[in-house]
């Protein structure tokens, strides 16, 4: 009995050690690129004659400690979290939806364009609910073309979604400068302004709109679906190996279409959250370009809709506090994009080193890893 007990204890200890090692590796791969990016960013600031400690301190002040800094950062998280949740769905299926900005802006333009008239015709609560549904429908519809081409003809979805986002941005501008333009209140091409009292309410005692609650619920729901439901299992199988998915009797074209539609719908909700919660209108040529900034965060979170929340919080603080820091350092606001680019660079480096040394699981899905390995073989 003592030998059996010793063996069992050794097995449990080994299992715990393996889990701790996996967690440690995940932490290195997720946090490491951010730390390295901040260090490299500090070196760039020094080369530009700026004090990196003061610069990062100003980011913390502007994004957290200033009077409304923390609340502004939490508010900024709402659309970013919804976009991240949407990307988790398609990335788990090994599908690349990079048409984020087109889906976002089209949904935002539609919500802003019909919002005021709809709110006049219906009770405020019903109008807001219909605007959320409209945004989700617009985002989903804008994925139909790349989804169909991917499902039916295996056309590269990276190309088609980028093409559709370019078209979507310009179509949104056409609506804003045309049928949705407010000619009565301003000469600037923009939609009518939805009054503050007709927008999303704030969480009591704060200036944070309830869109953040919707975003957090969406992250939890996506995590549950991807880890606890048959649909999530099917998407994971598709992402791991499309041939195996077909062999198991799964309808791959249908899964591609559905995953694209779900992703686009949630991105549409992000557009609704930003308009109904913050702006109340859309100006021509407005584009916050949230899409590609969120992509690296999803991979840093290892395609986990819950784990992405702290990374989005960091990005929100950098975004809100970065304006103050850049202004005080007399730098353009684009320095934030430099930090994001550095995160992408170091993420790729740590991923390469991790795969070379087999330190743990990859950021990439198993299907993508297998494809890369096959390409390396002679």
Indicate the low-confidence ranges by residue numbers: 4-8, 10-15
Main β-sheet, in a few words?
none
Give the helix proportion (percent range). over 70%
Q: How many structural domains can be distinguished in the coordinates?
A: 1
The H/E string reads HHHHHHHHHHHHHHH
CATH class division: Mainly Alpha
* Radius of gyration, CA atoms, in whole angstroms: 23 Å
What is the CA–CA distance across the termini? Answer: 52 Å
Shape type = globular
With helices defined by DSSP (H or I, 4 residues minimum), what is the helix count? Answer: 15
Q: State which percent range the strand residues make up.
A: under 5%
Reported CATH architecture: Orthogonal Bundle
The count of strands amounts to 0
CATH fold category name? ABC transporter involved in vitamin B12 uptake, BtuC
Class from helix and strand fractions: mainly alpha
Please tell me the overall pLDDT.
87
Give a written overview of the molecule.
There is one protein chain. The protein has 378 residues and is mostly helical. The protein has a single domain (30-376), classed as ABC transporter involved in vitamin B12 uptake, BtuC (Orthogonal Bundle), CATH 1.10.3470. The protein is 75% helix and 0% strand. It has 15 helices and no strands. It has helices at 2-47, 52-65, 69-92, 100-121, 124-141, 144-153, 157-177, 211-228, 230-240, 242-247, 252-279, 291-300, 308-329, 335-357, 366-376. Helix 4 (100-121) crosses helix 11 and helix 8 crosses helix 9 (230-240). It is globular, with a radius of gyration of 23 Å.
């Amino acid at each position: 009995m003592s030998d059996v007990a010793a063996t069992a204890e050794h097995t449990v200890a080994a299992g715990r050690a393996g889990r701790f090692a996996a967690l440690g590796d995940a932490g290195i791969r997720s946090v490491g690129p951010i730390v390295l990016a901040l260090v490299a960013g500090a070196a760039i600031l020094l080369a530009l004659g700026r004090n990196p400690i003061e610069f990062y301190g100003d980011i913390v002040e502007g994004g957290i400690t200033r009077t409304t800094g923390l609340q502004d950062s939490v508010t900024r998280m709402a659309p970013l979290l919804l976009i991240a949740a949407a990307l988790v769905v398609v990335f788990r299926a090994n599908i690349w939806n990079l048409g984020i900005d087109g889906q976002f802006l089209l949904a935002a333009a539609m919500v802003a364009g019909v919002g005021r008239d709809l709110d006049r015709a219906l009770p405020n609560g019903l109008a807001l609910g219909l605007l959320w549904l409209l945004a989700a429908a617009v985002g989903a519809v804008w994925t139909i073309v790349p989804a169909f081409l991917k499902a039916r003809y295996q056309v590269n979805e990276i190309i088609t979604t980028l093409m559709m986002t370019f078209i979507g941005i310009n179509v949104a501008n056409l609506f804003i400068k045309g049928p949705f333009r407010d000619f009565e209140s301003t000469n600037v091409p923009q939609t009518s302004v939805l009054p503050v009292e007709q927008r999303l309410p704030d969480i009591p005692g704060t200036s944070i709109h309830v869109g953040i609650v919707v975003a957090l619920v969406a992250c939890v729901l996506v995590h549950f679906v991807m880890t606890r439901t048959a649909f999530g299992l099917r998407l994971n199988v598709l992402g791991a190996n499309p041939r195996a998915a077909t062999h198991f009797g799964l309808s791959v074209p249908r899964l591609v279409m559905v995953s694209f539609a779900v992703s686009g719908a949630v991105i549409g909700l992000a557009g609704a959250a930003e308009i109904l919660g913050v702006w109340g209108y859309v100006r021509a040529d407005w584009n916050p370009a949230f899409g590609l900034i969120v992509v690296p965060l999803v991979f840093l979170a290892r395609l986990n809709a819950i784990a992405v929340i702290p990374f989005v919080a960091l990005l929100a603080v950098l975004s809100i506090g970065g304006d103050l820091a850049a202004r005080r350092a007399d730098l353009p606001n684009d320095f934030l994009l430099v930090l994001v680019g550095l995160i992408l660079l170091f993420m790729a480096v740590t991923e390469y080193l991790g795969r070379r040394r087999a330190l743990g699981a990859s950021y990439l899905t198993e299907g993508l890893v297998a494809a890369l390995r096959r390409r390396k073989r002679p």
